[in-house]
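As a warm-up, study this chain.
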Amino acid sequence: MKEQLALLPAYLAAHVRLVVIALAVCFCASVPLGIAATRSRRLERVAVGCASIIQTIPGLALLAVMVPLLGALGAPAIGVLPALIALTLYAALPILLATITGMRELRAEVLEAARAVGMTERQVLRLVELPLALPYIAAGTRTAAVWSVGMATLATPVGATSLGSFIFSGLQTRNHAAILVGCSAAACLAL
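Now compare it with the structure written out below.
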C-alpha cells in the first residue's frame, strides 16, 4: 500500500491534467457551437446528432479507435493525444445540450427589452444571453467533468498515465491495494 500511495501524486496530477485540458478544449468548442446551434435548427440537429452518436460509443472503444485513426494520420497514436481527443469528444454532449437549453430558455421579453434599449446583437449575446444561460452551461460542464474523470481512468491502455494505471496494473497483478487506491482516488475526484 505504501508504494501505491507514493505513486498517487504523480498519477493524480496526470489524471487531473488530462481531464482539465480535455474539458477546456471541449468547453471552448461546445459553447460557441451551442450558441450557433440556437440560431440554426439544421446546425442544431447535426451538432446534437453527432455528439449523441459519439456519446453512445463505449468509452474504452472510443479511446481504442483513436489509436488506428491517429496512426493512419501519422500522428502519435499512443499516449496523451488519443486520450485527449477521446475525452474531448466524449464531454461534448452535456456542454452542448446545456448551452442550447440555456439559450432557448431565455424569455423573449428579456431579449426584446435588451434590443429595445439599443443593444446590438453582440451586446445582447454578451451581456444578456450568456449571463442568463450560464447556470445551465455550468451544470453541463459539471456533468462533463464527472464523465471525463471516470473515462480518463480508461486512458491507460492507450498509453496515457492516469489513475487507471493503478486499476489496470492492479488487475493484471492481482494487487488489491493498487485497485483500491486507483478506484478510491477516482471516486473522490469525481465527487
